[in-house]
Each structure stands twice: as structure tokens, then as C-alpha cells.
Write a structure and sequence with these properties.
This protein is mainly β. The chain has no helices and eight strands. A hairpin with a 2-residue loop joins strand 4 and strand 5.
Length: 70
């Protein structure tokens, strides 16, 4: 189990991956937005997205888990 985490306090602007999706290491799985800047959340490993722990529009804190990849 690997976790993709927020690196900054931001708004979840767009979710790209959903549970069950296959992703590759380095793929963008979500996009955060803060101060009109878009920050991609990158998959740390290849695998299947088992869980997405946020919703679009949600405010996340630094270190919050965005998605879990198995």
C-alpha cells in the first residue's frame, strides 16, 4: 500500500483517478489549486487505485492522503 499525499494546503480542484483505475508511477492522479496555481498530485508507484480519500472542492492540509495505490 502506497499513499499519494498533498504537499501543501490547497483545494482539491480536479480528481483524475478513481478507485479501480490502473496508474503508472509519475501519473497525475489529482490536481490541487492554491493561489491560482495548479499543483499535480503524482502517483508514487504503479498499481491500482484502491481508495480516493478526498472529494473535489475539499480543502486538504499538507500531508493529507489523497489516494491509496496497491
Amino acid at each position: 500500500m502506497h499513499e499519494a499525499k498533498a504537499e501543501i494546503v490547497a483545494n482539491v480542484w480536479k480528481l483524475i483517478a478513481s478507485p479501480g483505475d490502473e496508474v503508472g508511477a509519475g501519473d497525475v492522479i489529482a490536481v490541487l489549486e492554491t493561489m491560482k496555481m495548479e499543483i499535480p498530485v503524482i502517483a508514487p508507484v504503479s498499481g491500482s487505485v484502491s481508495e480516493v480519500r478526498v472529494t473535489q472542492g475539499q480543502i486538504v492540509q499538507e500531508g493529507d492522503v489523497i489516494a491509496v495505490i496497491d
